Amino acid sequence: MAFALQILRAPINLTSSLIGHCSATCSSAAFERVQISESLQGIMAAAPGADRSRVILYFHGGGHWLLTASTYKEFIGRLSAATQAVVIAVDYSKPPAVQFPAGLNEALAAWHWARDRFGEGSVAVAGDSSGANLAFALVVKLAQLEEEQPVACIGISPWLRLDLKTSLPNLYGKFCADLYLGGWHKVTKAADPLVTIVNASPELVRCFPPILMHAGSNELTTEDVKAMAVLCESVGSPAEVQFYGCPHIFQVGPGFHKSTRDSLQRIDAFLQKQWKSAPTE
Q1: Which residue from 236, 235, 214, 237 is spatially nearest to 226, judged by alpha carbons?
Q2: 3-class DSSP assignment, residue 57
Q3: Model pTM score
């Protein structure tokens, strides 16, 4: 099965990466490959005038098994321009070559690298869909370890509930979640708060950084966002939430220009508040 999945994924990743590269040729941002660890790389985007002391560590979506950082090259350029921060998209490992917690461990390694390189109070984490699941899982893990948190965590259509019920609409989501966890070889259940973030305890959520979530008003992750917002509110740390009449991760692709512009402006305003209030070294 692993070989079949790799064969199926190869043309999807190749095509999406080419689209990302080609779209980025129209961007004014500068791009470069960065070596995060011996086995982990990322793509750094810096728009003209971006403050290189402010960083967004970005985890891309793709159901935990598809797409690459290159797929998102054009988008991270736009995100850098909108926030005037450096954006680093992490090329984390995916099934079937690895299983949970490999992706989360790489997210943790990327966070430690970014924190050590750019300093405390300089790094926010963000992601879309399954990548947002990784970003939120990272803040749960940091809370468990009692380590310092990013200045903020941003979810674009964040997939925060992987403990899906078996039903026809959930078939693909169940497939992705099961593949992510390792199928018959899984080491934890989908209900684990490092996987289904809305299951995090109040004690852990109190340690979270400021949270922003944007999603469509009737899409795959709408209820996940609502559940996370209620959880944050219950511990006195309300999340900043905005819903749009748009599809899943609409900000990443073409179209929906007005809503995308509004979303990115809100993300920028949110980050400016967090960076200004963050401690300086």
Answers
A1: 214
A2: strand
A3: 0.97
The rounded mean pLDDT for the chain is 96
Give which of 59, 69, 58 is closest to 16, Cα–Cα: 69
Tens digit of pLDDT for each residue in 133-165?
999 999 999 999 999 999 999 999 999 999 998
Distance between CA atoms of residues 108 and 101, nearest Å: 10
User: Is residue 2 very low, low, confident or very high in pLDDT (cuts 50, 70, 90)?
Assistant: confident
Cis omega (within 30 of 0) on the bond before 150?
A: no
Give the pLDDT of residue 279: 63
Contact (Cβ atoms closer than 8 angstroms) between residue 163 and residue 191: yes
Name the residue type at position 235.
V
Half-sphere exposure of 11 (CA within 13 A, CB side): 3
Residue 60 makes CB contacts below 8 A (sequence gap 6+) with 67, 68, 69, 71, 72, 89, 90, 127, 128, 131
Amino acid residing at 166 = T
Q: Which amino acid is at 44?
A: M
- Sequence-distant (6+) residues with CB within 8 A of 238 are 229, 232
**Cβ contact 100:119 at 8 Å:** no
Helix ranges, the chain (H): 2-24, 73-83, 102-118, 130-145, 171-181, 202-205, 222-234, 257-277
What are the backbone angles phi and psi of residue 83, rounded to the nearest 5°?
Answer: -105, -10
HSE at residue 88, side-chain half, CA atoms within 13 A, is 28
Residue type, 177: A
Residues 6+ apart with CB under 8 A from 240: 210, 211, 212, 213, 266, 270
